[in-house]
Amino acid sequence: MPPDSQNLVWIDAHSHLQDPRLAAHLPQVFARAQAAGVGRIHVDATCEADWPAVAALADAHPETVLVSFGVHPWFIRDRSAGWLQNLRDVLASRPAGIGEIGLDARLGDDLDADREAVFRAQLDLSYELALPASLHCRDAWEPMLKILFALPPHPAGLLIHAYSGPPDALAPLADKNVHVSFGGTLTRPKNLRARENAMRVPAGRFLLESDAPDLPPTLPEGTAPHLIGADGKLLSEPAYVPRVGRLLADLRGATPAAIAAETTATARRLFAKLLN
After folding, report:
1. CA 128 to CA 52: how far, in whole Å?
2. pTM (two decimals)
3. Has residue 5 got a pLDDT over 60?
4. pLDDT of the residue at 7
5. How far apart are CA 118 and CA 111, in angstroms?
6. What is the pLDDT of residue 276?
7. 10-274 CATH pick, 3.40.50.460, 3.40.30.10, 3.90.650.10, 3.20.20.140
8. Buried-exposed string 38-77: b where 16+ CB fall within 10 A, e elsewhere
């Protein structure tokens, strides 16, 4: 992607640059992000095993990378007996948020009750420490919304990444200081739910994400991809965020410059404690 001719500044609110699929390509990934005008990248951990790699990214790129630590709902089996205290310790060691955490009802492993307990423990910790938390939700909107609506507004703010929930929940979620982010799935022509959500989300409550290396955008025919995975499929990366931002601008009847400015301001407010 060529440098942004409008000199817009974007922020990638959710990614996993610690993923092994990106390891050999990180210098190029950071260079393309910079060329595309992506000034900050938020990297979310998924399990205790990748916390050191996430911390190393922040240390190697202190002016670019923001980080969060947590246990993703896919990896609750891998947590140690002392995982929650370990999470407290890593959060005390550096500026960081909590994430990626959440619920997922599509796994079919009979661990939903345990998964909810792990999610609630981390969500409670985010309230206790007044730290922003990044949430995952897939096919679990009823329990997720029940939990969030029963709580007071979050003191720092929550982010539901790749939001695919009901449009009618967006305004009540905003009242709870919950934000949502949109990524590559917004560019899928048949994803009408995402496009409705992008149009209806209240101002100041939406961000942009890559979810790198997953959920890549749909590229226009003839567009050369940056990275292809071993399975032959496109990998997502932060440089694609402006592409999503421009589509979001079209959907909301705004200019790309306005969307870049609004999402950057929202991200800086939500992640203020990570910027210290």
Report:
1. 24
2. 0.96
3. no
4. 73
5. 11
6. 65
7. 3.20.20.140
8. bbbbbbbbbbbebbebbbebbeebeebbbbbbbbbbbbbe
